[in-house]
Write a structure and sequence with these properties.
The protein has four helices and no strands. It is an all-alpha fold and 138 residues long.
Length: 138
């Protein structure tokens, strides 16, 4: 019974297992959220039989499609750039690109803030986790 609660993965291959495990958990949560939304729509529709239907929208009016799809494309590109460029360089590029996609104003101060955030955050994470704690980063 004690062996059922243990997971024996070699230290140098942790980074190959856990992204898939976390991705699987996120997919399960997405399915659960979809089922919950579907149930609430069915219950609400059953309660309003005599009233006229209003058009349901998935996104709010005036939704910014460029930010959504830009972020999705950058996240996919980040995954593909991790192997050839490594964690540090690809994370710096990803944070900078996402910051520019999500920030509508390009002032010199904003560009300096984006550059500092894009360089310092992954560098500190790389140093603390990869160097000090000797955790294998992707």
């Amino acid at each position: 019974m004690r062996h059922l609660l243990t997971l024996d993965i070699p230290f140098d291959s942790y980074h190959l297992v856990f992204p898939y495990a976390i991705g699987g958990i996120l997919v399960l949560l997405l399915v659960a959220m979809g089922i919950q939304k579907l149930i609430s729509l069915v219950v609400n529709r059953a309660g309003k039989r005599g009233e006229p239907r209003e058009r349901r929208r998935f996104f709010d009016a005036g939704f910014d499609w460029k930010k959504l799809f830009g972020t999705l494309v950058l996240a996919i590109a980040y995954v593909f750039l991790l192997d050839p460029l490594g964690f540090l360089i690809s994370s710096i590029l990803f944070i900078a690109a996402v910051s520019f996609v999500l920030r509508p104003v390009f002032t010199p101060r904003a560009i300096i803030g984006v550059a500092l955030n894009a360089i310092l955050t992954p560098t500190i994470i790389w140093f603390v986790f990869g160097q000090l704690f000797d955790i294998t980063l992707p």
